[in-house]
């Protein structure tokens, strides 16, 4: 349309970025600032001779210029210009919009290159576009032409991945005007627009943000499967499918796609706006959840916990898990009696006898070794407990009073100790040297 170097309203055209049914987009150098903008120029057949159309175009561009959102391409300026032409007068009028230039590509071109997007990437793209649509809808502006060709994908820098790619929605301010004047000269352009149009839009009813939601869901289907929901070369058949036919199942076209995605897209593409999500954000959130892989089941408070030795039954974190019953401790010992600690395994053979009678050390001072006392009633008689030592130790009289004393010791232990006593002690000449006698005892061992 315009060769590089052509000046339009002060913008110097550098190269063509793309073209569509309404016009062409050029990369143009700003007349005053050191930057490049995307300059969209409307075609002569887009109703430029209609003064009402021109007024609506300028008004919509002004509204679009008020949108300030990271997921919407910013509109910098708009106007009317006169450029040289091959017409009889040598000049022609045109309408133009200067927008933010986003280096990268759009979803339509990316689809042609890769066939279809991965589900996580689609969820990322839809989430960002949904934010932009809801932002515009809250300000009373409906896009009316949400499709992959109007979804821009910014270039990914070295520190980012495609899952962090910035996504922007473009053509705000042009979409509504193009919808009102869509006599559309190209059959391909008609089908491209109708593939994502909502039923109420096709019937000429009042539109709101839920119409853009329908178009976004149709674009989502295309990004996931690589084909539009209702693919037919006949315009009437496409319109009839949007009005009456159910949405195809994307999971039947994409192996491994969770069936939950079908329910989300089907709701967003419901025939009546009341059956859809309240806004595009809710649709994007439901889509993000549906494309996630199934997670393994986790143990919750209400789930059953099985303990070895117990029958499984539901328990809660707020209630302790019952444990196997253990042996109850016996009654507390009487005052002055040693506590019974329970049975201990006896060493093999005669190890108990040898350990019970250590050799006396003549170099040590006089030691008083306690004599094993009889355990409490009901305890194992094979287990013996030494009485306490020190200033509160039991004497022989106390042991006799308690029913225990040297006369009650096992014979094997007495013989072993008697053999180890010095002869002088056994003869009674040295009484205090015997380490086995209790104070007050009348005989040795």
UniProtKB/TrEMBL annotation:
Keyword Transferase: yes
Region Disordered, annotated ranges: 290-421
EC numbers, comma separated: 2.7.11.1
Record domain Protein kinase: where: 11-288
Superkingdom classification of source: Bacteria
ATP-binding as UniProt keyword: yes
UniProt-listed InterPro entries: Kinase-like_dom_sf (IPR011009), Prot_kinase_dom (IPR000719), Ser/Thr_kinase_AS (IPR008271)
Class of the enzyme per the UniProt entry, highest EC level: transferase
PANTHER family, per the entry: MITOGEN-ACTIVATED PROTEIN KINASE KINASE KINASE 20-RELATED, SERINE_THREONINE-PROTEIN KINASE NEKL-3
Name this protein carries in UniProt: non-specific serine/threonine protein kinase
């Amino acid at each position: 349309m315009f060769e590089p170097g052509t000046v339009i309203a002060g913008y110097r055209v550098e190269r063509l970025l793309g073209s569509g049914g309404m016009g062409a987009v050029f990369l143009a150098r700003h007349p005053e600032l050191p930057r490049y903008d995307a300059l969209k120029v409307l075609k002569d057949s887009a109703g430029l001779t209609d003064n009402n159309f021109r007024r609506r175009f300028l008004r919509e561009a002004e509204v679009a210029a008020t949108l300030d959102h990271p997921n919407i391409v910013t509109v910098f300026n708009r106007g009317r210009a006169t450029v040289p032409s091959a017409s009889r007068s040598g000049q022609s009028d045109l309408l133009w919009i200067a927008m933010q230039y986003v280096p990268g590509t759009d979803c339509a071109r990316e689809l042609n290159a890769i066939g279809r997007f991965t589900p996580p990437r689609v969820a990322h793209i839809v989430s960002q576009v949904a934010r932009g649509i809801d932002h515009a809808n809250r300000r009373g502006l409906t896009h009316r032409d949400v499709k992959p060709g109007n979804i821009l994908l910014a270039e990914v820098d070295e520190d980012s991945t495609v899952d962090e790619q910035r996504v922007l929605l473009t053509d705000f301010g042009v979409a509504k005007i193009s919808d009102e004047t869509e006599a559309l000269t190209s059959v391909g352009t008609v089908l491209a627009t109708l593939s994502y149009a909502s039923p109420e839009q096709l019937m000429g009813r009042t539109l709101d943000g839920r119409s853009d939601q329908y178009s976004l869901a149709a674009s989502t289907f295309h990004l996931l499967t690589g084909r539009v929901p209702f693919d037919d070369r006949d315009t009437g058949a496409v319109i009839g499918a949007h009005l009456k036919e159910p949405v195809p199942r994307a999971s039947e076209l994409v192996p491994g796609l969770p069936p939950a995605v079908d329910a989300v897209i089907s709701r967003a593409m419901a025939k009546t706006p009341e059956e859809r999500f309240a806004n595009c954000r809710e649709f994007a959130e439901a889509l993000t959840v549906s494309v996630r892989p199934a997670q393994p089941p986790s143990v919750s408070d209400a789930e059953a916990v099985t303990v070895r030795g117990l029958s499984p039954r539901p328990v809660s974190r707020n209630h302790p898990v019952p444990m196997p019953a253990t042996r109850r401790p016996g009654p507390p010992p009487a005052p002055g009696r040693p506590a019974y600690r329970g049975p201990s395994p006896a060493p093999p053979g005669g190890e108990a006898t040898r350990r019970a009678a250590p050799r006396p050390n003549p170099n040590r001072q006089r030691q008083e070794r306690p004599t094993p006392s009889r355990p409490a009633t009901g305890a194992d008689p094979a287990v013996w407990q030494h009485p306490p030592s020190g200033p509160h130790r039991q004497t022989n009289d106390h042991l006799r009073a308690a029913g225990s004393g040297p006369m009650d010791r096992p014979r094997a232990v007495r013989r072993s100790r008697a053999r180890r006593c010095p002869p002088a002690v056994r003869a009674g000449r040295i009484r205090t040297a015997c380490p086995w006698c209790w104070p007050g005892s009348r005989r040795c061992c």
